[in-house]
Amino acid sequence: MNNPIRTVVRTIIDGIQTIDGTAGHTTDRTTAAVGRGTGAVRHTAAIRRAIGGIHAADGIRTTGGTTVRHPARTAGAAIGAVAIAAALGGCGGGTANGTTGTASVDGNDAASISFMLDWTPNTNHIGLYVAQQLGYYKDAGVDVTILPTAQAGAETSVENGVADVGFTTLSNVAAFDAQGADLTMVFDLTQKQTARWCALASRTDITTPKDLDGKTFVSFGSAEQSAVVTQMIKDAGGTGEFKTATAGTNTFETLTSGKGDFGGFYATWEGVESELNGPALNCFVASDWGVPGNPDQLGFAVQRSWLDDAGHAAALRKFLAATRKGYDYALANPDKAADLLVDAASTAQLDAKLVRASMQEIIRGRYWVDDDADAADDAGSTDAGSADAGSADAGSADGSDQQVTGILDFDDAQPYLDFQYQAGTYQDADGKNPAKAPQATDLATNDYLG
Questions:
Q1: Which homologous superfamily does the CATH classification assign to the domain defined by 4-190+298-341+367-389?
Q2: CB hemisphere CA count around 413 (13 angstroms)
């Protein structure tokens, strides 16, 4: 049943997303993924609190000159969560925090899941949109609502019950849980590093990370990113000293204007955008320069306490199975999936050429698959090659031989968590270093993928 309150709330959220500049925004996802900055449009703060989002001023903490995300528990957030939950729960639908457990899908009872994005819709999210558009969720008996990101991030929204599931990174889960949150990662999309640290190719004075010494890093002040860049510079023979400049709405513009010398990008999005439209970049990969493990384990997180409800756990399993099927379809049919994303996320005004090229890069780099182990046997397989997945697109490379498992590799995770802990990135609610490094096995589970 259509819920007019839900429609109004979603319209408000979409409008705020556009006001803040996230709709149609194609850059800065690496910079924003860890430590959203204070440069957001401040006049939307009161509206965001009313619908459950928390403005960056409520969701960050400054320690020693470094701005980091803080899992804020403000009264505004709590009130907003209740407001969203009430709105989404009308007419028999599931609430935003899943407390009702069921919703009506064409007259049939179905589990209900609300999912919050981490950024503007892009190919990281394509499996969600494909599963929704092709009816995979309906077939699985789960009613999924995809929510645009809040300024404070998906983690805070999941923590406060505004969304059941959110897109995040394992390192963000570690940072939030160190400060008292109760998040756990349940799905790891990216199996290989996608982050790149880049200067303009025209900067012939920057050929290795050592040349970043004394240069200006375009950033939102993320302690995690600073630790990575410092290690890369030192590994290349430098001192690890650099300056920072607050990123504007577009890191490309900040670099070309001369206000910064290098920044963080994703190879599967901004890297593709650079190849299509310029400017050309010269990039470095963290693992090539002394950063251990996989820094880029991007996927889905929930509250542990939410999983205590058997209905929620069952709904999550259905949701993950259908979502994996959506990602597998995207690998086997990249152009068709790209068009589905562009159409479904029309308010984001995505560039269809960029989305298609991004999928080609994901397939070429095999970013979503584990090439080191037959992980599909452990988590069950999806039927990307079946009639449901469709035939591969003609005229473009396809990943029909690839399948998404969603499995988090703990052996890849722990070295990076240890590295960031030693760098002092993770701090407790009092701003102190925890007694020990976050443990990947405490932060994530693969139990809901089978």
A1: Periplasmic binding protein-like II (3.40.190.10)
A2: 26
